[in-house]
Amino acid sequence: MAIRRFNAPLLAYVSPLWYIDDYEKALKANEQHQQPRNAGSSAAAASSSSSSSRVVESRKQQALLQSPRALPLDWWETVLDYSRNISAVLGASKSSSGASMTQSTKSTRDMEMPSILRAIWDLLEIFYVDKHASSWLPEQLINWLERYDKVLAILGPTIHCKLAVLQPRLVNTRFPEDDEDYWSGLTSALAVGWLDVVVKCLRMHGSYQHDQIDNRQTENGLVEAVVVLITKMPRLRPNPKLDTLGVTYTFKPEFSKAWERWRNQIAKLNSSSFWLECTHEGTVNGLKQLLSVLLGDVNTLTAATMHWMELLVSHFLFIRPFLMGAEGLLSLARKCVQLKLPAEADQMLDLLLAILGEDTEVVLVECRKLFDPWMLTHMVELLLAKNGQAQLFLTEEREVLDGMSLEEFHRLVYAQLLSSHPCTWQLAPFYLASCPRQGQGLLEAVLLMQPVSSHSKAPMKVLDICRMYELRSVGDKYMRMVGVYHWKHGRKGLGISWLQCGRDYERLSCAADELLAAVSQTSAGDSNRLQELDGLIDLLGPQFEGFGGLAFLHRFRDFKVSLYSFQEAQTNLAGIDKQVVAGKAATKHLIQLMKDGITPQRFLLPLLQDSVELLEYSGEVLVTAAETNALLLKLQNFFLTNKHDDINSTEIMSQSVAKIRLALACNLGRAILKE
Amino acid sequence: MQMEMTQLDGMVVHTSWNQSKLRMAVALSDGALQIWDASTEASGTSHLTLTGHWDAGVGGFCPKVTWAPSEYGDVVASCSVDGVISLWEEVILDGETEGTWRRIASLNTAQLSVLDMQFSNTKTGLLLLVISADGHARIYHTIDVLNVAKWQLQAELQNSRTPIEINGKYTFLGASVAWRSSTSRSPQPAFAFGCNSSSSSLNVAKVWEFEQSHQRWFCVAELREADELDKPVNHVSWAPNIGRDVRNPQMSCIEHVIVFPPVSLPVPGSYEMIAVASGDGISIWQVAGAQEKCSVRRVARLMGFEDEVWQAEWDMSGMTLASAGSDGIVRLWQANLKGVICIVINFAIIMST
């Protein structure tokens, strides 16, 4: 039998809990790439995100203690730390432009599946958390695309895919300039600002090779001129980037001047006469294409890019280089989408546009469609960092959710997911503790679901959690379950201890009853068994003073032990004195048991049957006349009260009673004579 | 939790998971019972291992098996077609290392086949509700807390009310019971009970509640709308309540064919949810209040099944409903943020021989 899943949510994108949804697939991916991604590491990832959440939650509580009405203005910095910690948990992202060129497209797709989460996470951070980033949004988006263009490849063709296909061909080609794809790849890479890739590839141009028959000096000069222009491209950035090409300017006026100067140089080169001297048509056309990109030609940029985000970034780089904030960003993005409509439905389109437009409601709806509850639970903190409208939307109580807010609802769903696995259930209480409406109910249910078996570590963890969250009644109930389990599975002492911890006096009373029965059935000679029962009785402990059976149990045990000594003395033919001393001790315990009225009815007959041995002892009269009378009275009362039970047992009982009565009568006669 | 697919040998009649969902009891057609235990590997996957197999001694197939709450140890109840219910307990006897399943009690019901049975843990002791082929619900009670060996019949209830229904000769093909979950805030035990019988008037799910003052069980609500009259009840499931309540009741939107007129709950407060799988759909009911103040309303009728719906089960939070039917598809249902209940995932069961 097999199970086929269909009509599933649009994308089964993975999270730190991906193994729960798609473990088999992930295992296969691991086998291919030898990556140590297993359930343990995923659980560790879930654990790391949980610790980051704890930190931000505790800071929030502290901040609210200081000013209960609102969080401090610099709260976004705390969330930024949190966001970066979570982002790190989601896996390292390498720059797509250079390093990942060596990876094949297929492996890129498989390996970077979790990165789709990180890509969206980082984009949310840019738009919702980082206040500094809001002044440099285009630059942030350029950097974002550089990191995550390979991730967008999951949704359709991107420049990264194109370069990944081109790269192995370039290695084996001596004169790449003859290949149209070479120039097409370079144009695309330049359009999204991957200057280092473009420069590296241009340096592979055949004109750089020394052992050539043709004179290609002019051609080489043109290539080198373009390389220099690309290397000197002015960029308006908050900070200079050491590992990338281009000249960084932090002030707009300076950048403006440099940009004009640079553009003039390009225009000058574009209209120079050297192009006429270059005989290689491919090189001329290719370089001209590159210059068109640098000059911001819309048609060239549109043709060179593949994904709408790439086109958007190319606009920032070459058409609107002075744009710094978010003004016009969304409308520009929509235009790019229209120009680059994907062949198939782009499942991320609405989400990306919603993030660019900071439309919280749509962001949440789309994330709910695309990602699992991990994302929804953890991203709420980002959405709340600086956006007042999001605060209202996420924290208002909703009747349709039984009074829960969206924030609580997502936490509850995620906690339920965590609690379904033995590696992660312990993370659930933290999330549930912050769910005011239904968190406690689910936490109690989760705790009471934990296994109680001896090979499980769950019991101690459950108790810790109950102590931490002051769930005393749940703890008691759970300890009761553990106690019964051990009691039934041959660990009676452990069972008693757990039942005592759980204050389950009803079950302890039943346990004591069972021990009584066991003692009464144990022969006096089985000292090991008696010792074991003795230990268990001791374990029931002094706190059971109010419980009548315990006092009886101790005396019953004393009687059994002394009776055994008496039997031993007789068997070993010890001296009469010793036999008498042992017999009198046993008689003393027997009389005590009879006197105080603590002996349960069902123990009376076995006790009196045991007493026959003492009564019939020939060496000396061990039971006095008064004591014998007391025993006779007990026997008579017992016989009368149990007369109406079922016929069979009454018959057996009658025989026993007759035997005891005879022994008592004989002893009474001997005792009277002696006295 | 991801669990490896396990192939069970023999003709399986019924299965039941214990409270921690790590042990499964299986009733086989030859009258044997099996216990399968889940264990988790370091890699995170779980698999089932057969740890117990014994002949339940019922002289035929065992139609139902169910677990008692964990506070009573590892106890399962099995039944025979002639109405004998056996309670089995796992113990480790002195000197042994492996657990043994031993019979601790036998209940002779009405010498009729048992259609369904469920345990419920209450403040006054453990209850076992048994539905027999005469359509009667019998409630057995024990006050033992450590050894549930002695039971007594507490009540015998009929799902019929009119003299015609009571005296009529009807055949009961199936029945289903569901106790109010222990997480509910209500102190009194209650259960929902529905039948699949030859009389359409008896094919209605009803809610029964115990009233402390009279020490009696009362039928407090009927869960049936006009469009369900001829539909036999195949399964009822009472949703766990982890804090569900409503302050300003509003009508939920309904998807899949049926829309009801807006009805408000009379008293805002805690309410329960019951799913009734009847015919080719599932009805979701809200139940609020207790005894004579009990009010019910159907909030959704989930349709779209190709044929009979066999079973509907809630998850531990009462937010997701799983359904299974004769079309071989397991569907998971959830309410979206507008209150519309819709399918979130479908699983098709492909049988291979």
UniProtKB/TrEMBL annotation, chain A:
Localization in the cell: Nucleus, Nuclear pore complex
Keywords: Membrane, mRNA transport, Nuclear pore complex, Nucleus, Protein transport, Translocation, Transport
Superkingdom per UniProt: Eukaryota
Listed GO CC annotations: nuclear membrane; nuclear pore outer ring
Key word rRNA-binding present: no
Principal subcellular localization: nucleus
Region feature (Disordered): 30-53
Function comment: Functions as a component of the nuclear pore complex (NPC).
Membership in a protein family: Belongs to the nucleoporin Nup85 family.
Subunit structure: Component of the nuclear pore complex (NPC).
UniProt name for this protein: Nuclear pore complex protein Nup85
Species whose genome carries this gene: Adiantum capillus-veneris (Maidenhair fern)
From TrEMBL, chain B:
GO molecular function, one term: structural molecule activity
SMART domains registered for this protein in UniProt: WD40
Main localization, broad class: nucleus
Keyword Nucleus carried by entry: yes
WD repeats: 302-334
GO BP annotations listed: cellular response to amino acid starvation; positive regulation of TORC1 signaling; protein transport
Cell compartment(s), UniProt: Nucleus envelope
Keywords of the record: Nucleus, Protein transport, Repeat, Transport, WD repeat
GO terms under cellular component: nuclear pore outer ring; Seh1-associated complex
PANTHER family in the cross-refs: NUCLEAR PORE COMPLEX PROTEIN SEC13 / SEH1 FAMILY MEMBER (PTHR11024), NUCLEOPORIN SEH1 (PTHR11024:SF3)
Entry similarity comment: Belongs to the WD repeat SEC13 family.
Protein name: Uncharacterized protein
Organism annotation: Adiantum capillus-veneris (Maidenhair fern)
